[in-house]
Amino acid sequence: MENKTCVTIDLISYSTGNCSDSVRASVEGHLMECESCRTALATIRSEQEAFLQMMPFESVMESSAKTARVIPFPLRRAVSAAAALFVVAMTFMQIDRFSPDDQFTMKGNAVLTIVAENPDGSVSPRAKPIYVPGERIQLCYSLPCSSYVAAVSVDGNGVVSRWFPSDEKSVQVAPGAMIPFSFSIRLDEYIGIEHYLLFVSSQPIDFTAIDQLAIDHSAGKPVKFGTTGDTILVETIQKQALHD
Amino acid sequence: MKQLEPRQLYEMYGHLIFSRCRKLLGCDDRAKDGLQDCMLKLIAHYPKFTDPDHVVPWILRVVKNYCLNDLRSRKKFSDNAVLERLPSSSSTGEFEMQDTIALVLSCHKKDVQDAVYFTYIEELSQEEIRTVTGQSPATIRRNLAKFKESLPQIRKRLGIE
Lengths: 244, 161
Description:
Chain A is of the alpha+beta class. Helix content of chain A is 32%, strand content 26%. Chain A has 2 domains: 8-54, no CATH class; 82-239, Immunoglobulin-like (Sandwich). Chain A has helices spanning 8-16, 21-33, 35-54, 57-61, 63-67, 78-93, 210-218; strands at 111-117, 123-125, 130-131, 136-143, 147-155, 160-164, 171-173, 176-180, 185-186, 192-201, 231-239. Helices cover 71% and strands 0% of the residues of chain B. Chain B contains 8 helices and no strands. Chain B is mainly alpha-helical. The A-B interface holds A 7-10, 12-13, 16-20, 23, 44, 47-48, 51-52, 55, 57, 60-61, 63-64, 127-130, 193, 195, 219-220, 234, 236, 238 and B 4, 6-7, 10-16, 18-19, 32-33, 35-37, 39-41, 43-45, 47-49, 51-53, 55-57, 60, 122-125, 127-128, 131-132.
């Protein structure tokens, strides 16, 4: 693409077939005049075809599920359980020490993390968020200051599951890094994308609208939640069927 | 905007992601990891797009972030490796790909890193870089100038003259 009017990004968008009418018209007009872009487009398309033959969707996006061993999630080794319970207990013991409006700042370092058991028995965040039904996961949070939190999940059918708190009484938790919630989640049979959301607020959370907020936020719709500094953290996983 | 199934997204954008990952990571297996990771992000993010023309710039940003993080985390380019790859002049004229990546990783400011990455690795025009990063052409030129100016400092920090 030597011509100064050549636009790499538009040509790539055009090659995917998923572009606006204006880009389509612009690129097609340009292709009439530019030999190097015609060659570039032909190259992209032939490489794309070769790529899909060499690496079809199933071989890439399901390979992890195919090689994953489903191991019953132990309730934890004794030491791990004791450590986790200790952390959770300490978390709730510290709640009273923090004021909800005590210089509440979110500064972007609130994090929701999903951990799961690995084939070697260790429990850690998974490099690729691909899971199979029946696996157990655990949600962990990192917060810069004490906050009210609510954990929910939304699957591709819009089904919302509330995980924390267990009732509609808003609960404040202490700050810290990688603090596990005291429950684990066994993944159900739903296959597809599932979003786990953690609502983080400086004020008690209103649960009347939280399901709809979760659905809208997962769908990429703009949502209004809480006040300045409040945030909704999202972790997305893909659940795939385990193939023999 | 029409919503697409994961398979359709893969067939449209899988090659773009994989080819970039392979170019940067230099290894098919690691590129495949990058492909899986970026595809999952794309599948999750796609419903938020309101314009199909925004998808490719978004992918370029995500792939860049993934690959640079991957290279950093694997410490492929330690300071010593950067030192060995630094060109003898402060010109950014004709770096080898690995040199350029090493230098991009040595940029600590994200704006400068973006300008260098999309100029020397993706070889985008300044208008296209504006689309991807939001930086104006003047800002891009300023960031590239900062990068060129910082090369002697990098060399000094690394103990080479």
